[in-house]
Design brief:
10 helices; binds phosphoenolpyruvate; alpha/beta; globular; eight-stranded parallel β-barrel
Length: 260
Amino acid sequence: MKKLIIANWKLNPQSSAEAVDILDFLSSSIQDFAVKDNFAVIFCPPYVFIPKVASTVESSPLRSISHIGAQDLAAQDSGAFTGEVSGSMLTRFGVQYVIVGHSERRYKMGETDEAIHEKIKAALRNELVPIVCIGEADRDGNWNDFIRGQCEGAFMGLTGAELAQCIVAYEPVWAISSNPNAKPDTPDSAVEAVRIIRSVLRRISGEDNICPVLYGGSVSSSNVVDFVGHPEFDGALVGGASVKKEEFAKILRLVSEIKS
Ligand code: PEP
């Protein structure tokens, strides 16, 4: 299976010209190394840059390794929901993936497990792959129960076939680079969490390894190989480093060199 690298641009960059500049830089850097078939990149820009990012990727060497994602979607498909963007609108713009339940949306915008469950269903009925973020705020005594609960809240009630369409990103909130004193998790400790996540998915679906599970939290060129090269992780969700063009190009180069 290909390793997946999700580029979550968050509320960056500030203009579509800057977005194109990042992509142009990546396009020229990926020509320097043999782009292997071992990974794919999913660019998740802010909504307004999606058409420009999609057309730029499509007409560049990035095309063979890239897909377009969004950072969120509405739980509803239409109606009186000011400010929302639906899954069907995203699909029409060539979006194939959507991040759901990012910790910044859970904690800064108050998204609940119920809302996240509805958004996963909205993504699936619109043929989008939901990239569902799961992660504890602190590694305190109950962190494993917390992860289990978040995972059940997101996925309970989905069929095995629906779960097989999802991607999970284990993102410990304390490791996300924008948080004070953030530091990356270690592969060994993140594996513990990934095993809890996989056990909930197995209980719901009745199947082993039903969907890819990624790691996210302060991923950079200095640790990406430790996570993405580890057999328990199917890839990485990269936030801050994904809009730093030199750093992200380095990350892609390192991932392309990982032996599958
Ligand atoms: C994220 O936004 O999900 C994330 C993991 O951010 P960062 O890589 O900056 O820690």
